[in-house]
């Protein structure tokens, strides 16, 4: 009966789907601000989630003994009085009957009357809490953390606001059948015993609450998921590994791109250099065989192996040659390797 009344309250008050009804009167005191609850998806057939209370608060799963400084503000929300008819053939009606054990012989409906009176809303100062958690870490040795990490479907949530009654409240249920001109009339007016039930519960009872999910990182840091788009849970080791590999891939890709750009620029430079050489009417003998110029030699005759040309052999393709010049030096060697045509003449034109 209590669960039916809180569900009806949440359905009518709304709050964008963030409010969760308290499931039972015995657990109402476990849904206070900064208390922890576990959110778990039932199965793929049920889109809604199941929330389970815990005996812990946010402070209990944090390292250190420092209290959480974020305060809780409260204000009056509304005055709630409700009376509704529930069909016995629906799931909600069956739940009420099983919950309170009312006599439904000859009835097709039950009337539920909830008198909550003025209810208040108590909510955590979100901005203050967000600043504080930047310096706090999760204690992975806590039993609740260990159990939640083992379950892939479990998400830890912290209660951020609760709605409470301010006075002693009553819930009553009455069984009957729907009449055309009356809301209810009894099938047998002489036998009404067991058709009415009522409960009274004390003031300051929590009837609904809302939560923020927690996303916990491998290093113990955590975030509050303040929007419905962000999802809570635990950072998995494989997720962190994939993220690291993805970053390394991007670094290698960028480095490879820079190398290819450098090679492309060097190739363009060589193309311009060689085209400038061929555009002129000079032959190999115009420079290399003139008197006083450097002499082209076969390096194999001097026991020097074949190797890359110093001018065109530094790109992506290692162009090798056996020719060179002893009158020039580079990279600590007393000779340079140069193709006979056209690198030998192009090199010495630049030297001049």
TrEMBL record:
Q: PANTHER family attached here? A: NONSYNDROMIC HEARING IMPAIRMENT PROTEIN, PEJVAKIN
The answer to keyword Glycosyltransferase applying to this record is no
Could you name the Gene Ontology cellular component terms for this entry?
ciliary rootlet; cortical actin cytoskeleton; endomembrane system; neuronal cell body; peroxisomal membrane; stereocilium base
Q: Name one Pfam family in it.
A: Gasdermin
Domain Gasdermin pore forming per the UniProt entry, residue ranges: 1-235
What is the name attached to this protein's record? Pejvakin
Any keyword Lipid biosynthesis? no
Q: Where in the cell is it found?
A: Endomembrane system
Family to which this protein belongs: Belongs to the gasdermin family.
One Gene Ontology biological process: detection of mechanical stimulus involved in sensory perception of sound
Q: Which organism is it from?
A: Tursiops truncatus (Atlantic bottle-nosed dolphin)
Q: Which UniProt keywords apply?
A: Membrane
